[in-house]
Automatic annotation (TrEMBL), chains A, B:
Pfam families: LacI, Peripla_BP_3. SMART domains: HTH_LACI. This is Transcriptional regulator, LacI family. Keywords: DNA-binding, Transcription, Transcription regulation. GO terms for molecular function: DNA-binding transcription factor activity; transcription cis-regulatory region binding. The keyword Transcription regulation applies. The keyword Transferase does not apply. Residues 4-58 form the HTH lacI-type domain. InterPro entries: HTH_LacI (IPR000843), LacI/GalR-like_sensor (IPR046335), Lambda_DNA-bd_dom_sf (IPR010982), Peripla_BP_I (IPR028082). CDD domains: HTH_LacI, PBP1_LacI_sugar_binding-like.
Amino acid sequence: MNRPSIKEVAKKAGVSISTVSRVLNNSAPVSEELRKKVEAAVKELGYYPSNIAKSLRKGKTKTIGFILPDITNPFFADIVRGAEDFLRKKGYTLILCNSDQNGEQEIQLLETLISKHIDGLLFTGTGSFNLLLEEKIRKGLKVVFLDRIIQGINSSYVIVDNKKGMELLLDFLIKSGHKSFIFINGNKETFSAKIRYEVFVEKMEKAKLEYKHYFTNFSYEAGYNFAKKIRKLPHAIVCGNDLIAYGVIDAIEEKGYRVPDDVSVTGFDDILFSKHFKPPLTTIRQPKYKMGMKAAELLIKIIEENKFLNRGIILEPELIIRKSTKELKK
Amino acid sequence: MNRPSIKEVAKKAGVSISTVSRVLNNSAPVSEELRKKVEAAVKELGYYPSNIAKSLRKGKTKTIGFILPDITNPFFADIVRGAEDFLRKKGYTLILCNSDQNGEQEIQLLETLISKHIDGLLFTGTGSFNLLLEEKIRKGLKVVFLDRIIQGINSSYVIVDNKKGMELLLDFLIKSGHKSFIFINGNKETFSAKIRYEVFVEKMEKAKLEYKHYFTNFSYEAGYNFAKKIRKLPHAIVCGNDLIAYGVIDAIEEKGYRVPDDVSVTGFDDILFSKHFKPPLTTIRQPKYKMGMKAAELLIKIIEENKFLNRGIILEPELIIRKSTKELKK
């Protein structure tokens, strides 16, 4: 927008730019007469004081940023709702940015949010590192990591117990007779995909089962494209999240197979639609709304008590058994 | 975050605040010596120049805001993707805010975004008016309305032909023998709900069919709660969007009825999951990604050509026939 500049305000008020700045920032005494002139000009021109002026006065902008990796994944929408409901009650406004699982974009968004003066940041990263974020945290940016932590960065976080979630799922599949597995996992660089990979391999090796593992990315398309290329179906296809599972099921069915008759398929997250999917999806439920709420609560605590807390909150996952998996004959 | 203040920069550099401001804003000549001192202090403290300083130099912040009504509705996620893909190519960053279908919250978000210095705004409103937005548009804020326009506000917009969408849907249902209807519509105050209501009543009256119409809101819960209370099923339940239809189908099935055997149910939007819903949903497809892309394109045109264009783009809807509706005996 064509925002009136501070220069125009100064001209209109017949004062210097420094005077306008002093009035807006309360940074130095100004005579009542000059103050009135400036305020009249500000009002007439519809000039908005910059947020830094407000920050200087109040020390706070009451704005929280949230960088998330994929706006089209309903998993994050539920997290946002949880965070927002908490923040609103506390008088904070949440502004969201979508990195679209792109590391460069993530840096750009981080720079934009910081330049807009946020009091703190909720962050679900797309890769295994972010040097700019590391630097900003060292310089005092208050951050709570959500769903995914970045190893090597010291910060507070709220995640779900991915190890336990994966164990619940695999124990269930193994117990119901599945002996061969393909794991179509999400992005290699993400914390959650790594943990789930480790648990998977450990379980497979321990039970001496046949298995393959692939990193793709956390999307419907990744699942669809990958499953199109599978030649020989295993007993179970384990997917890195529900969206991958949706894509896998579609591709498998287009090839003329049926789920779960020909192959069991599982997800991870339990997004709203998984209950209604055809077939309804067996998956691990993450407490998404609670995750958002807890992260917002922790961030506000850090901001308002002005402490550099390093606290990790780990929430419990839950196994949800539906119709995309079946009991195999032993 | 504990951002270093301009005062601290001034102290560190051993100069006045006005001098720091002059250097950062390029608003008045400063000696090379002082400039160097200020720049060194800025660097050492990690001070970020406020966006208004950047605006003053460049006239633009290269940031676009988007206020949307419901982050949990995947309909908007697709629109965001379309807008973002276009904006990114043009070097703009998109920041999102979720009004959660709350008018007060919408005003708060608008104030926040304007105070953060956006170059323009994409706006999907939650009500039938927004006085603050009207004022801001008069004062030069560049806005493109998306999906929903607000009557009485002169601005550019990108919408889908709601009238045609509703006609396609009702003509199909009437032709396939449905003679009694309940329309569970979205929020009374929204443009799209109003248009769809008008078309519905007109069609029903013209064909002399039995009908009832109710405004609720565009959510799963609204559909679920409303359908729980329906005593006598009509031939068809027409829903204001796909989420309402999901809720309706769940409630109907919990009451022991089957869709479409006992009642046909239709949606509006065709979000990703509707193809996979059980039963797959008959609905009207809106070109969501294209809507976002076109709106971003129009907004950037308005910003870069600095014109106050009032242009409306109306996109075509498409009838998608799936398994939640059936052919009735005539």
